[in-house]
Amino acid sequence: MEKHVYCIAVFSDARRAIAAQEALVRAGIQVAVMPTPRELTAHCGLSLRFAPPLLPQVRQVLADREKGLAEGSFYRLEYDDRQRSVMPVR
């Protein structure tokens, strides 16, 4: 059974998510737009997915770009054939 792990950044609205994606791509960071997981329904419908080792770089670019990005805006997702977990990362 293979385990998949990735991180996401969630946003308060789709406009901010797309602007953040553009900033990250300009910085050379590979991200993908994805629907926000159902466990995080308090956020908008779009999130940015990226590899866990990129988290420090993503945080830096978004700190410069998104002054109002909340502390609880980054999550680590792990899933396999049987279960899925969504955990905030600090």
Please tell me about this protein's structure.
The protein has 2 helices and 5 strands, in the order E-H-E-E-H-E-E. It is of the alpha+beta class and 90 residues long. It has one domain: 2-Layer Sandwich (Alpha-Beta Plaits). The protein has a 5-stranded antiparallel sheet, covered by helices on one side. The longest helix has 13 residues, at 14-26. The N and C termini lie far apart (28 Å). The mean pLDDT is 87.
List key phrases describing it.
90 residues; Alpha-Beta Plaits; five-stranded antiparallel sheet; 2 helices; 5 strands
Number of E-type strands: 5
CATH class: Alpha Beta
**Shape verdict:** globular
Rg measurement, Å: 13 Å
> What's the structural domain tally?
1
Strand content: 25-35%
Which stretches are poorly predicted, pLDDT < 50 over at least 5 residues? Answer: none
Would you identify the CATH architecture? 2-Layer Sandwich
| Average pLDDT | 87
- Classify the fold: give the CATH topology: Alpha-Beta Plaits
Describe the main β-sheet briefly. 5 strands, antiparallel
Kindly state the percentage of residues in helix: 25-40%
Helix run count:
2
End-to-end separation: 28 Å
